[in-house]
């Protein structure tokens, strides 16, 4: 695993896992939320997002956390490992509300736009993610049958995956 992407609904656990996984695999981690948003809640244009993504994926090793459908195919083309968090909607909703409370009026470490605030548009996006975004993600993943793709659907699978990666890394270092 040298070029890893993590995708899935907000609140699915991408950022939390990416921090742990990047440390285990010794990969440089890039949060697209941090790169595509500027302070003051200003989002990069699609052209800027594509340019940033093209620069990132030219590196030999990286881990990229984030959805951003407009650049997903670029990342999929170059990635050698994909983790798709396809967790239940209720769990993602609980987690985004928890995050809104935890970081209320503070800046999140993986998000550059500004202080955390309640946003109905974002809540609706998360609520609708399985219906509006999930089908196209599965379609895009089907286009890469030779890529190593892990789909995590329940929390137990997430924990088992992390345990497996940690064990494999430990075994590799021991040999």
Provide structural commentary.
There is one protein chain. The protein has eight helices and seven strands, in the order βαβαββαβαβαααβα. It has 175 residues and is α/β, with parallel strands linked by helices. The chain has a single domain (3-155), classed as Rossmann fold (3-Layer(aba) Sandwich), CATH 3.40.50. The strands form two sheets. It has a five-stranded parallel β-sheet, with helices on both faces. It has a two-stranded antiparallel ribbon with strand order 3-4. A hairpin with a 3-residue loop joins strand 3 and strand 4 (42-43). Helix 3 packs parallel to helix 4. It is globular, with a radius of gyration of 16 Å. The relative contact order is 0.20. The mean pLDDT is 92.
């Amino acid at each position: 695993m040298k070029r890893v992407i993590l995708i899935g609904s907000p609140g699915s656990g991408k950022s939390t896992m990416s921090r742990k996984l990047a440390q285990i695999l010794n990969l440089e981690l890039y949060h697209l939320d941090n790169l595509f948003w500027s302070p003051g809640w200003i989002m990069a244009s699609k052209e800027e997002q594509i340019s940033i993504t093209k620069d990132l994926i030219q590196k030999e090793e990286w881990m990229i956390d984030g959805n951003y459908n407009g650049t997903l195919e670029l990342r999929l083309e170059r990635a050698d490992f994909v983790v798709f968090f396809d967790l239940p909607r209720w769990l993602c909703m609980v987690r985004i509300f928890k995050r809104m409370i935890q970081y209320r009026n503070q800046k999140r470490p993986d998000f550059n736009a500004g202080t955390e605030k309640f946003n109905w548009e974002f809540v609706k996006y998360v609520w609708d993610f399985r219906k509006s975004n999930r089908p196209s993600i599965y379609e895009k993943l089907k286009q890469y049958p030779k890529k190593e793709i892990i789909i995590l659907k329940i929390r137990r699978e997430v924990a088992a995956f992390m345990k497996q990666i940690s064990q494999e890394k430990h075994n590799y270092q021991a040999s």
